[in-house]
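To: structure desk
From: M.T.
Subject: fold request, one chain
Message: Could you run this one when you get a chance? Sequence is below, nothing fancy, just the single chain.
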Amino acid sequence: MNATVYLVGAGPGDPDLLTRKALRLLQCADVVLHDDLVSPEILQLVRSGALTQNVGKRCGQKRITQQQIHARMIDAARQGKIVIRLQGGDPLLYGRAGEEMDALRNAGIQFEIVPGITAAFAAAASAKIPLTDRRLASKVIFHTAHHCKEDVPADFGSAISSDSTLAIYMPGHDYARLQNQLLASGVDPETPCLLISRAMRPGESFHATVVGKLSLAPRVSAPSILLVGLLAKPPHRADAAIAFSRIEANQSYSALENMTMQCASVLGDGPAPSPTIRNSGRGC
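Reply: Done. Structure tokens follow.
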């Protein structure tokens, strides 16, 4: 059996937003090594009996070193187990996927990437704002605030043009520092900002301000993201009266599957075939 590790994106936390392949892998997994910010609702979908371990390394709460994570992935894969490295959002953006892929390559372990919806896309979708618009913003720039490091840069490295939307991941709570960094990068103090907490999850919240007043923003809970630019205006809530219901977080996948089958029946079509998983120890 060829050992394979799957680097899987868990998306923003809403089980409805997982890819079908990610869901199927979670239900076939032997070992799941997940980050802190993977939601409990996603973890409920992991196969009963699988070894599930939190290997998150949030500020001040390091449970495990990166090298130990590499070793656990490699050891489990060499035992022929289905190994899932589960990360919030997309594994290729502000995760440790680069280091983990290098470690797997060096160990001769095959791996696959299963993309997830990254926080910037989830936040913008929930706020109902575009990240680009040919009239206002032609580019999107991804940044991280690096709030866990002591060597904080004075700015974001270069002048930021007004036709950009900035997506600042892991903004932390030092909004005064972020404000100063943005101003030092040439951002107009009247540029809109939108701070989104827990996008697409229970307890989601929005706070709209401008760069010049960012330091006054309230502390919000993680995960959060800061969108900056002409498009990052307060979401219009005129359509708030339109009922929008997500599936309750504690609903099991069997209920999701039943709903899918019911929808297929109504549409007069059968269920789509399940995605193929190359390393299946039990015919998953």
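Reply (cont.): The two ends are 14 Å apart (CA to CA). Let me know if you need anything else for the meeting.
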